[in-house]
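User: What would this chain look like folded?
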Amino acid sequence: MRKFFMMCLLLATVTVAFAQGGDKEAVKVVLNNYKKAIEKLDTTGVVNLFVKDSKVYEQASNEGTIGHYLEHHLGPELKEFKSFTFSDYKVDVTTAGEYAFSTETYIYTIILAKDGKEIKSQGVATSVLRKTKDGWKIVQTHSSFRKAK
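Assistant: Here's the prediction, encoded as structure tokens.
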């Protein structure tokens, strides 16, 4: 009986670890899809990566929901860019039940369409995601940046 209990405990531990690993990877896919949309300068479908009542913060400013942020900030901004690329990208994800917490660090380089000027910044973003019936969705995200060293 003790061996059976130990086997069940081991199986449960492995199952939980596997599920958490799968959840972490699924969260990384959502974050990567958001990053790829920015790099393509095309936010089509980005709202589907977020919950409806999401919160977006940038540089200590409340940008509202993802829909508002895309319409009034990021969308118009991307139209001014020739390119937007991320490098030195690292992401750390922790899951806790139906929630996930992430920290992304990166360097981004923007080339302006108007004059070809390059802007290089060091950034960080922290996000909270929730597992929904439709998969992982971003509930809240905050990003900030400073001139790259």
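The chain has a mean pLDDT of 89. If you want, I can go into more detail on any region.
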